[in-house]
Design brief:
Helices cover about 50% and strands about 10% of the residues. It has about 170 residues and is mainly alpha-helical. A 3-stranded antiparallel sheet has the order 1-3-2, with no helix packed on it. A two-stranded antiparallel ribbon has the order 4-5. It is globular, with a radius of gyration of 17 Å. The structure holds iron/sulfur cluster (2 copies).
């Protein structure tokens, strides 16, 4: 029987749902947005009138989708580069799980640094949180400056890892 890599990897990951990889999920149309709204999931329209569901996703429960049977079409069809590589046999499931664990550990570290810098709003996607924090980097105080420098460094290393491991060319889920 073939291994269900989605079940094996995605249930330990959720980086494409929790705001680490993407800022939103593109919805098919107003009908899909309405259907999700009935489940308690808000969406918004961008400048081109495309409906977007913001991330981190309110349906995420730990590392699992709380509306799995009703998730948007984009979520159903999305496969990150790591998952595709695992499906193609280019990386073993164990190596993929190690990459996921490393990325999640780095995300945790960036979030801890954000809190250290006083940015506790967990409703924003990670890059946005970091950009907002770094825009307010202090010009005085060695300890505070060190915390911001550590945040900038950690986010930059995380970005590189996410790009290389999980993203091909896509920028939105
Ligand atoms: S980032 Fe990839 S491995 Fe992780 S949950 Fe999304 S599709 Fe699955
Ligand atoms: S609806 Fe489910 S699969 Fe889609 S982003 Fe939210 S938690 Fe992830």
């Amino acid at each position: 029987m073939p291994i269900d890599l989605t079940a094996q990897l995605c249930t330990k990951c959720a980086l494409c749902c929790d705001g680490s990889l993407f800022a939103d999920v593109e919805l098919a149309d107003d009908a899909e947005a309405d259907r999700l709204e009935a489940l308690g999931l808000d969406s918004e329209s961008d400048d081109a009138d495309i409906r977007l569901m913001p991330l981190p996703c309110a349906a995420l429960k730990g590392t699992r989708c709380g509306v799995y049977a009703h998730r948007p079409g984009t979520c159903r069809s999305f496969e990150c580069r790591l998952l595709k590589d695992a499906q193609a046999g280019l990386v073993t499931p164990q190596a993929a799980l190690t990459s996921i664990a490393e990325a999640r550990e780095r995300v945790r570290n960036v979030k801890a640094l954000l809190v250290r810098c006083g940015f506790t709003d967990a409703t924003l996607p990670l890059r946005e949180r970091c950009a907002e924090a770094l825009a307010h980097a202090p010009v005085k105080g060695v300890r505070a400056q060190r915390a911001y420098a550590a945040l900038e460094n950690a986010m930059s290393e995380l970005d590189w890892l996410l790009e290389r491991t999980f993203l091909a060319r896509r920028r939105s889920k």
